[in-house]
Amino acid sequence: MSVRAKKHLGQHFLKDENIAKKIADTLTENNYDTVLEIGPGMGVLTKYLLQKKLTTHVIEIDTESVEYLKAHYLNLADRIISKDFLKLDISTILNNEQFAIIGNFPYNISTQIVFKTIENRNLIPELCGMFQKEVAKRIAEKPGSKAYGILSVLTQAFYDAEYLFTVPPSVFNPPPKVDSGVIRLIRKENYNLPVDEKLFFKVVKTAFNQRRKTMRNSLKSFNLSDKLREDTIFAQRPEQLSVEEFINLTKSIANDAI
């Protein structure tokens, strides 16, 4: 019995054992005893997670995959969550304990997985996973490049991001049309912002929505005072600003509104 890859779920099953083990080994196993794998499919990665000292849980929306896992991984049966990760209240599934996230993520929901991780960062000290290469690069990118954007800044405000290795299409069934990339996110020691989080998200998104413009033009809608707009930061484009500069800018904007 094998599971048929379903296009609407964005399934591309990893078939290379070496890469599955390599992904499992990206986990540092620091500051947590539990790992949650998203979208295990037929368990090629799960197998290597079960060899670790960690307690492995998996979450799978595809009922055919759930049946396969129950039949082939008997010791995992009571730790299979047959639900949609994006619709789940994370705090309820693992009794509020710290856990890492891992997976060969479906491309169509991979950025949403990152944003959900950020929302629940108090519970998630680490995320290791496979994304479309372009998305993986964007998450881990540093300032000054075209790939650096909203996803880079919002992720790196809370996590240290590292691009680990590239994976070719040939190791999947069916093969995707693009390369994949594996990254690791490790939660920062101080993962709460010293500014209003909603305002920070708004500043970052507004700035990058018109990324070719200088900050002075892209943040026009904030109706900032002339005095603040004279700051040299406003002569730069958003991709030139570090996470720290975006945090300081948000602080200045909040003070400007008082």
UniProtKB/TrEMBL annotation:
Alphabetical UniProt keywords: Cytoplasm, Methyltransferase, RNA-binding, rRNA processing, S-adenosyl-L-methionine, Transferase
Cellular compartments annotated: Cytoplasm
Binding site for S-adenosyl-L-methionine: 12, 14, 39, 60, 84, 104
One of the record's GO cellular component terms: cytosol
UniProt superkingdom: Bacteria
Its job: Specifically dimethylates two adjacent adenosines (A1518 and A1519) in the loop of a conserved hairpin near the 3'-end of 16S rRNA in the 30S particle. May play a critical role in biogenesis of 30S subunits.
Name recorded for this polypeptide: Ribosomal RNA small subunit methyltransferase A
Organism of origin: Aureibaculum algae
Lineage start: Bacteria, Pseudomonadati, Bacteroidota, Flavobacteriia, Flavobacteriales
Name of the gene: rsmA
